[in-house]
Specification:
about 325 residues, 2 domains
């Protein structure tokens, strides 16, 4: 088996996962010792990252996870230790290599959707790590239409795609936070605020259309004598509600980045009364238990910050029904 292509891919994946777990549990000391024996490790990982489509999904995920674990191991160390480790790692994984790998995954038309999303999620996680340590993200995000590809992924509404959409939005949030220039590219060139608001409106509508009342987590699980179909339907509903609420909250966080970024505000790109944002917030405030109290709280936080930044917005907030909606929604259930 080990001599077949699948067998070799499996061996590579197992080896990389072993390295990943060792780095996570044994720490940078183990990594330093390993790099002294294998100084070319990072070059080999870079080669794997540039060939994710050909090495198989298991080896691809393992390579991405191992690289992420190695980069993460530098954080939390004192400056001297981190400097020594960085020297051993060379220049670490170039952010552009990760960006190219991610761009290729975003443009791929997969035949095996489940495995494709596993690799894509791992690539998005690694992209977050390299973005956090590399503030020059504008070139990489603009490379070969990266932002456009990400926004295309954002349009997917099936439950299976939602974790990848959330991870992608987290990447955009992080990139916009660490670079004002990137934020301008996203919110000016690609009209990020209307795009996020429109997608949030769509997601809230899908959430409202689901067949449950009150808080879904207060529902009694199906009794033992129900059919398998009913039991499957119950757990599928919980999964979908959780995934959609998580996506809504991430979209609100992306919107918050736009509203708090000075470059975006100064460019006049943070007009919350253009587009569907106010309508979405009002709808979320009308049924807090349906959208989830966490999302409800984030919506209130956005409204509070908007008023704090510019008190002259209060009349518009009242006229739009957002402030009256907050007052009506505040009760012992939402404040517990």
């Amino acid at each position: 088996h080990a001599r077949t292509t699948e067998g070799r891919q499996e061996v590579v994946a197992i080896s990389l996962y072993a390295l990943c777990n060792a780095v996570k549990h044994l720490g940078p000391g183990f990594l330093r010792q390993h790099l002294q024996k294998r100084p070319g490790l990072f070059a080999e990982l870079c080669d794997l990252l540039q060939n994710l489509q050909t090495i198989g999904h298991e080896a691809g995920v393992a390579a991405l996870r191992a690289t992420g674990a190695i980069l993460d191991s530098r954080y939390g160390q004192n400056r001297t230790e981190m400097s020594q480790l960085s020297q051993m790692l060379g220049l670490s994984v170039p952010h552009g290599i990760v960006a190219c790998a991610l761009r290729a995954l975003l443009s791929e038309e997969p035949s095996d959707l489940d495995n494709h999303y596993k690799v894509l999620l791992a690539a998005l996680d690694l992209f977050q790590i390299t973005t956090a340590s590399n503030h020059q993200t504008t070139v990489q995000l603009g490379h070969a239409g990266m932002i456009l590809a990400m926004l295309e992924l954002m349009q997917k509404t099936d439950v299976k795609s939602l974790p990848a959409v959330v991870a992608m939005l987290r990447c955009l949030e992080l990139a916009a936070e660490v670079s004002g220039t990137t934020a301008l590219v996203l919110f000016r060139e690609f009209r990020g605020l209307p795009a996020f608001s429109t997608r949030l409106q769509q997601e809230v509508d899908l959430l409202m259309a689901l067949d449950f009342n009150g808080d879904v987590y207060d529902m009694e699980p199906p009794p033992e004598d129900v059919t398998d179909e009913e039991r499957t339907r119950y757990w599928a509903l919980l999964e979908e509600v959780s995934a959609r609420r998580r996506l809504c909250r991430q979209l609100l966080k992306n919107i918050q980045v736009a509203l708090q970024c000075s470059e975006v505000v100064q460019a006049g790109l943070a007009n919350v009364f253009q587009g569907p944002l106010m309508d979405v917030l009002k709808k979320a405030l009308q049924e807090p238990h349906k959208v989830g109290l966490c999302l409800f709280g984030t919506a209130i936080d956005i409204v509070s910050n908007l008023i704090q930044d510019d008190p002259s917005r209060v009349p518009q907030m009242i006229e739009s029904g957002v402030l009256p909606g907050i007052v009506e929604a505040l009760n012992k259930d939402t404040m517990r």
